[in-house]
Structure formats: C-alpha cells, structure tokens
Amino acid sequence: MIAVSVVFVAAASICTLTSAQTFQRLALGCVLPPDQADFLAGQYFDIRLEVHAPVNGSEANGGVPDPEFTFTIAKADEPAQAAATYFEISEPLLEQWNFTWYEDLFAQDAHTPSVVRVTSKIYRRVALYEPGEYVATLTYYNGTTTVANWLVRALQEQKRAKNVILFIGDGMTTNMITAARLIGHKSINGKYQSKLQMDKFPVLGHQMTHSLDSYVTDSANSACALYSGHKTSVNAMGVYADSSADPFDDPKVETLVELLTRIWGSAIGIVSTASVADATPIALTGHSRSRYTYGSLVDQALHGVTNYTWTKYFGPDVFFGGGAEQFIPGSGSYQGKNYYTEFSDAGYTVSLNKTSMQEVSNDTKALGVFCTSHLPVWLDRNIYTDVLSTNKNDPSGNKKPALDLPGLKDMTLKAIDILVARGVEKGFFMMSEAASVDKQMHALDYDRALGDLLELDDTIKATIEKLKALGELNNTLILVTADHGHGFDVFGSADTEYLSSKTNDREKRNAIGVYQNSGLSQYTVTNASISYNTGVNFPANWDPRYTLAQGVGAHPDVRENYRVHKSPRVPATNITGFPANDYFVNPEDNPDGIIVNGTIPTYEAQGVHSLTDVPVFAMGPCQELFGGVYGNIDIFFGMAECLGLARGSNATG
Amino acid sequence: MIAVSVVFVAAASICTLTSAQTFQRLALGCVLPPDQADFLAGQYFDIRLEVHAPVNGSEANGGVPDPEFTFTIAKADEPAQAAATYFEISEPLLEQWNFTWYEDLFAQDAHTPSVVRVTSKIYRRVALYEPGEYVATLTYYNGTTTVANWLVRALQEQKRAKNVILFIGDGMTTNMITAARLIGHKSINGKYQSKLQMDKFPVLGHQMTHSLDSYVTDSANSACALYSGHKTSVNAMGVYADSSADPFDDPKVETLVELLTRIWGSAIGIVSTASVADATPIALTGHSRSRYTYGSLVDQALHGVTNYTWTKYFGPDVFFGGGAEQFIPGSGSYQGKNYYTEFSDAGYTVSLNKTSMQEVSNDTKALGVFCTSHLPVWLDRNIYTDVLSTNKNDPSGNKKPALDLPGLKDMTLKAIDILVARGVEKGFFMMSEAASVDKQMHALDYDRALGDLLELDDTIKATIEKLKALGELNNTLILVTADHGHGFDVFGSADTEYLSSKTNDREKRNAIGVYQNSGLSQYTVTNASISYNTGVNFPANWDPRYTLAQGVGAHPDVRENYRVHKSPRVPATNITGFPANDYFVNPEDNPDGIIVNGTIPTYEAQGVHSLTDVPVFAMGPCQELFGGVYGNIDIFFGMAECLGLARGSNATG
Prior knowledge:
Chains A, B: Keywords: Magnesium, Metal-binding, Signal, Zinc. The first copy, chain A, is α/β, with parallel strands linked by helices.
C-alpha cells in the first residue's frame, strides 16, 4: 500500500472527527467498527485499527506512527483480553502506508496537502455472539487510547416472517409522495377519491439517513446501513472505510443477504430500474470502499467475496435491472470477462428483454439485463415513447435501442413467481428499487421522478394482489422506504401559457400561483385531445396548462418553465468548455423559462441529496417494529429480528 | 349585499371548479357544505346555496340567476325532503348579489372582469344526528342539479381521554424536524446520543393539508380542518366561503372548542407565540371568511358568535400570546373598545408580562397578552437578546420594548396549572402553537425557525414531565403536528469563512460542501469563546464556521451566506419604490452572500407555503387513531372520537 491523495470522492471516514469539515480523515487512533456501532449477534465483521502520524499540518506529531499499538476487547465488566486471544485467531501482521489530504478549501486552493503516515492491523471475519455491551480499546503512543463502545443487540433466532420484501424508492421523500398523489389521484373538494397503496399501509415510521462521515448520505452508505446495520462513509458499501488506497481491503460487515443465505438458505431477489451494479442493488452483497468499482461488485454478486475468507455466496435467485456494461466483455466487466457467460455457466437463465424474461422458467436462477445504463423511466416507456428509439442501449452492446423493456412492475411480479417457486418453505427476501425517483430528481426532471414514484406504488399494489393470489401475503413483511431525500417540494401552480407569453423573467414569475392561486390539480382532468391511457392512479394529463410549480433548494444554474419535458432533462451543461467541470444553464433546456442561478458548487451539474428523514411504510408480520422515528440501521435490525438471523454461537454457518 | 371584485385574497371557494386556476369562483350551482363533506353527528352547521348567472365571460348564460331553485335532503335510500321540512325550520329568505372576477391572468392584465349575478339562501344552525350517507340536491334552471354527497361518521359519545393537548408547530415539516435534531442533539459516528421528545412518541402519522380551493393551504383553512373536520378556502376559518361580500354571513361549522364547551363544559386553553388573533389560535372559535378581521375574531373568542344563533361560548380559560393591537382600544380593536377591560369585566385576570402571568391564581380565567404583534422568537429571547430592546412592542401600547417575555414553555406550563385546576373532572383541551416556525420560515430565517422548533420540543418534554407530576399523563392524549409545510431542506454545509473570502458568486458557491463534504454538525460542538448556556437539546454554538447549507425552492430574490442572523431577517425589500409591491434582494441582508433570484411572483416578499404532508406524533389514550396517512380533517374526527363529542340526538346543548 502506498501514499494516496485523499480528496473529495476518496475522503476517508472518521472514528473521531478531525478539525476539517469539507475534507475528513481518521483520527490519530482509530478503531473500525467505530464507537457506537451496533451488531447482530453472530454477524461477521472485520476490525481495522489505524494509528496516524501527521507529518505536517495542524496536528503534526513527528510523523512516526506507533508500530507497537495494542488492542483489547472486554465484554461488560469482564476483564479486557487481547483481541487475538478473545477471538482465538492469530495476531495479524502490521501494515503501513501514507496518505495525503487537505485540511480545508483554502489548503486545497493553495495546493498544500498534509501528509499522514499510518500503522495498521486488521482482524478478519470475527463475530460477537453474546448480546450486551463491549469495550474495544486501542492503546498507542505510550498510553493514548481510542475506545469504541459496541452493542450486540438482543438475540432473535426464530423467524416471524417467511418472506420479506423491501421496496426502496431511491431518494423518495414524503414531499414527493404528496406530489405524486396529487397528480395521480383524483380529489373532490379536498377529499381524495383514491389513495396511494403506500398510504394504506398500517404502520408509518421515519428513518434518519445520516452516514458515519456526513449528515447527508449517498446511496451506497445508506444501503450499507439498511442491509447490514452499520453506517459507513459516503461511496462505501459493506465495509467501513479505512485510509488505505486499496478499495477492497477495508473492514467488512456481513449483509442481510449473506446472513440469510448462510443461516436459512432463503431465495434472494434483487430487482432495480437502475443498473444492477448501482449502489442500492449491488450493496446487498457488495464490499468495497468505492461504489464505482462496478465490475468487481458484479463479480461479488455472483461469487461472493473471494479475496478473503468470508460468507459463501453464489448469487441471487433473481437479478433484474440495467447495467449491461458490466456484463458485455470489455473495459466495464471484471477482468474483461463475459458476465452473461459467467452467470449462464453458474446455472442462470439469461434474459435481455421483457418478452424473454416473462417466458423464463420459475425453477432456475434468472439474470435479466435489459439495457446498458439505467432503465428508461416510466414516462418514456409509456408516454413519450419516441425517446426510446433515440437510445443506443441494447444490452447486447450493439448500440441499437433497447425497445422490449420491462418496467418495475413486470420485473417485480416475475421475480415473485421465481422466488416463491425457489424459496419454497425457506422463504425469500427481495429488494425492489425504483431507482429513477432519485436519478430524475438529480436531473431536476420532476415529472419523470414522480412518474417512477407512481410506478413504484403501482408495483406495490400489484405485489400485494399477487402475494394474496399465491397465498403468501400473510407470510410476508412488506416495507417501503427510501435511502435519503432530495429537498423537493411543490409551492404552487404555474400558468404555463402566461409564463411562456412574457418576455422577461420578473414578468414570467407572476405566472406562479401561490396559496389560493395554486388552485387544484389539473393532472387528473382528462384532456380530450390526448389519450394517456396508462390506467387509474397515473395522471390523465401530463401536460396541462396549469402545472405544478415545484423545485428544490439546491441546484445548479437552471431555467424553469414548469412544463413536462418531452425527453429527459439536462438542466446544466459546460457551455464554456473550460474548466472541464463548470456548469451553466443548458441553452437547450426550457428556453422560454425563468433562469435561477445555482446554490451549489459550480462543478455540480445536477441537484444533490438532502438531509431529511424519509418515511417507512410497513405491513405484515413484525410491522409494529417499524413505527415511530429511528435510524436507518434499525431497518436492518428489524428485518433481522423478523427473519430470526441472530445467532448466539458459531454452530451455524 | 353588493357587487364585489373577487381577486387574490378574496377569491371565493368552489363546489365544483370553474375553468380558471389562479382565480376561482363557485360553480353555476353550489351547495355548501359541498360534495364529499364529512360531519360529526350532532355538529352544528349552516347550509349556503348559490345559483350563478355569469353576465359575460366563457360561461355567460344571460345573467339572470334562478330565484326559484329548490333544495332537498335525503338520507341513504329514504325519500328526499325539502330541507326546511327535514330540519323543521322555516324557509329562509332569498338573497341576491353580484360579484366580479377574472378568468385568468391575461384577463386581469387586460382589466376585463367577468360579472356574475347570484341568487342564494342560507339555512342556519342545523345538524345531522344519524350516522350514514346523505344526498343534498340543489335544483335550478328547470332541472339542472348540483348534488352534494355528505357523510355523517359513526357515533362515539363516550370519552376515552379526559384531556387533549394539541401542539401545533406552524409550518413544521419532517425536513425541519430533521434539521432541528441535527443542530440540537449530539451524534457520535451517526448515532444520536439524545433524541427529540417528539421522536419518542409511539405513533406516527402523516396528514394531507390540502384545502378546498387549493392544494396549497394557508393556516386559517388548515386550522378550520383540524378544529372542525371541514376543509374550507384559503383565509377562511369556521365557515365555508360563499361569494357574498360580507365576511361574517358565510355558512358556519361548529368547532371542537364549541362542541367541547357545549357537551362537556371542559376547560379550554389557547396558547401561541403568535398574536392570539392569528389564524391558528383564533380559529378555535373564529367564524369569518377573512382571517384578517382580527378585532371581530377576538370578540368572538370572548363572546362567541353573536350575529346569529349559535353555540354559546364565553371565552377560553387560558388565552396566552401576543397581539396587543386587538386589545388596546383603537383602530385594531373591535368597535374601538378596550379588550383588556372587556376580558377583565368577564372575570379574567389579565397579565401583560411573564412575571405577572406566573403569579396569576390557577382558579380564575387568565388572559396574557405579552406584546404587540407576535412574540419575539426563542433565539432573540435567549441568544441575541440585544434585539429585544430595539422593539416597540410593549402590550400596553406605550411604544417601549416588551422585555419581560414568556416563551412557549412558560406559557404552556402555566396554562396546564390553570386548566387542571379549572377543568377538574371535566378535563381540558389545550392548543399550544409554536407559531414562528412558520413565520421565520417565511422570512427565510432558518436558524430562528429551527430555534422555535427546538423550543416546541422542549415544551413538549416539559409538558410530559408536568402532566406526570400532576397525575394527568395517562389521562391525556398528546398530539404534535403542523398545519402545512414550507419546502425547506438542508443540502450540505457551508464553509462561511471561505464563502465570505471570495468575491464572486460562482467562487462563493464552492464553499458549499455536499455529500461527504457536508461533514458533521458543528452546532453541537462547544465554542470555547461563546457560552450559549441554553441547556441540553439546544445548539452549543449557533455560529460555527461550518454551518448548514439550507434553503427552500420557493423564495423572492435573496442573498444567502448561510450564517445565523444576529437580528431577525428581512430577505427582500422594495428598493425601487414603484410599483409598491415589487421586491428585490434587501441590500442590507447578507452583503457577503450569494445572490439567488426568485422563483415566486415579484410581489411576494417572503417564502410561501408548500404542498407536503406533515407529520403527526401521538401518545396517550386513542394514540392508535393517528397512525398512517390521512387528511387533516381526520385529526378533528380523531380528537372528537377520543373526547366523545358526537351526539345522536339534539337532547344535549
């Protein structure tokens, strides 16, 4: 391991925060899992220790990291033991590396990095079986200590639900749900004539999404929290982020899917409208400091972790989504191999379009990769379908458009058929993700985001009906939640004719109706000249004169006319050419709109994630575990309790 | 009644929406309460009928409204009866008036109003006692009908809770709660070391806040929904809005406080950090088409409705807040009378400061008016106290500053003492409002809004402790909710030193840290040089270098530097002088900040309300009624069920 520059994307996580805010590094002494970590009894994890010696900068201490540090574990009031003794493993070798980082933005502008030298050890694949409190102590520099207080939660070894389905609306907030309901469901005098399926769930909770290193999370580390009960750093999954350069040597935590495979052998389904290598689906089995190591993560999804001894894993029973780049042999695939062939050789039937997917036998493992990149969104698959033929996203890689595309509902219902058939009495777990709620919010393409939110709700409704028909509804815990938010809301209506007719921005702004001038939703009023014909619970008209005035507080320079975009939106572009990441209003986006200058760094071309707690809707066995307000890790512990995944000894697996 | 121009503030509500969006009027035939209205069995209400004859405009029909219209009521499958027969009252007289309105913004710009002639009747103080569905039918123009389907909900005549406390964080959203928790509660490695009191409530719900005439509500009509189970129009309370000019002749609905007084004689407490005449407190007993009829509404708060036969009401037991303008004799008070004297003459002890309030006997009715306008916010009463002496808000009207001011907690705890003493076995109802969450969000003064949100939470915590000490906790349903939202969220951090050091806006924007660069909350880190000393669960530092990057999507022209404002914020001003309502960035606000041009009409000087569903936290008897997703009217029906306020006959009251 060698020196690395720790900036932006590769910023290290923290045990205790050093003084910087924008840039972070581990403290002088660091234990990972860190102080305040919670564990499922019997869950595998690695322990990384680091001792830092800053060479320069505000904490410079001579630059010689202690190679003689010691580490002990103590349960409750029992005496502390050397970790190798406690876990009955041999003492790991000492590792050493250097890295550099910036203490703040002024240091970055001045190109004055700080250098840190590191000594480190890692204890691999250990577990704590007995519930209770533990104290893990790192001692270094002749008596300095870093103490981590750990909690192993109470045991639940019995299953209370045969199946669990976790729906994730990526980036979905209560505000978006409110807006989607308004455009998709008819209201008379303030009373809705129908509700969203998620509105009908009996239990509601809020989860706090903050990550270890930041109060605003990304989808990788929030997925890690949801799937493993361990919060990590932005862009990491299935590992705590250490300061070394290698993204695959970081200390791992065992995921729900690995636990479920090891303990019950249940069927596993992973469905997403994103690339299957995208953070939310791939974090179910992925262990990497970087969510961008796509090819390796797809290999882990099939073969499990192979560089270290870890839970055996041989791929999900259902794996549906986009992301052909990691399957077509070449630069995007792991070691350049053909992953269609790899999956096929491992017993998977492989579908590259909706028709083929629906004909697949329910008895074999199924891989479905329907396009390169992410799946086209509901609005383009159902309303503005001309968009589809402009794509070059055929999953074979032939640069032709993928036209025979499933939606989230198609994939999810087929997955249930397979999971019920293959899970039999062992039950199943499925994660089904509406990924483009997030992706289209990033693009400030609110209609496309809300369309995919309504598609998610339609999928949940169809799932409940299907489970009922299969006799599995009462056996199944269904959760609907998100991984983080975007700061979206609706603040009125826009008279798009008036807005377009005016020639200066201040006059255009008077087209916005607020309070009583917001009026009522025109999206549910049938437009005689256009048949949208997408069924109830979707808008009857996507392009009314009076639209939602909606937006976010954090955005690049944009121009808004509040009309539906007939092709996917690109709000900001680099119009000057230099520097490379310097974004202004896209000259082609909404030329008749109101320009609003940006509120985030000029190198951001899109909207960004936000702080807000996100909703959790629960129905089925254990639903009562998901009411009230709690952390994202509690979703993992709730599912683990419901599935009886804790173990008080290492007799299993 | 004479012709009135129906524009902006005075826009009429709808039964069925006419074609316009920004401007609205009642349909050709109109029944109020309208189609889809729900009723508590035995709840008093008035019925307004209107028949419209547009003289010109897109619906012109000759301009002669039908004077011969008829109106019938039918329960379920029973035969329809003339309403006067059904309710055993005499047929009301025919009324006639005209009004004008604009069909859209183009018509407004062209000054081409449409004229509508109206015939109308109103049936006053009726009630439906038998649960079930009713059909109300207005027949006009030789057979045209407007049908209203009404539902009287199931009866609950028995009390399940002795007391109900309804806390309202005006404008408070989940996003704001998340941000307040982040600045007020310490987190270690992503795990909070303490939580908000509201986080600990066992039941969580979401309420939809839409009003009758608009999907974005104001605080008057949302208060009407919460307190009476009837959604009305923006700026109306306790009435459905008809199209006549008189704001006091509109059809009324009976409120929770009126029902509780009539049926159980319980003690009533009304506490707010706003003027007591502001919409949220005054709507508990107010009946007016216009929330701006402050003096009249204060008179109603003391004497009840006096212009028509209605539920007898003699004022709340506790009435604490600001708003001295309506008490000091003069232009702000009803008929120029001295309302301190009016209340005193009615048996109230009157307090004009905190010291006096705290010394009041718990046995008598108490009025506390602590300043003109709204109470100064928590941040100014506790941190930036120099602000207080710059005010001219003494409640005596002497133009001196009010300095001996209670906060929400002081007022609420004293109110409980009085309500417990006066309610005795009859129990009590209290509404306690943190009004400036909303008011400071309007001013885009996020720190002041979040400070008042934390004060609300601190008040809830102290309330629970006090009820426990008084032996009343298990008798009391506590609800915490809001009336609407603002589109607020946090999207990262701001390095205020870096931002301030740069000279152009694009460079300043790079001070914003998003995702991992958001880092951790610096508000909970003690600042050695400043003692804030406001106790746990409030920020240890309101002015750190790294602040929250936060904002809304809907705002006037503003300039943001993301620092705390040491005096209350005024984001936009009229710098050109003409036209009168034309707002630009306030030159004195954040001169070192980033300018962001507005997204709402240029005549709006502040941020505006938003669409989002808002949270409901419930604990105590009947808490289970408040889980899941429902309308704001269901809060009323839940409280009414818990308090046993339905009546199956007119034997009571």
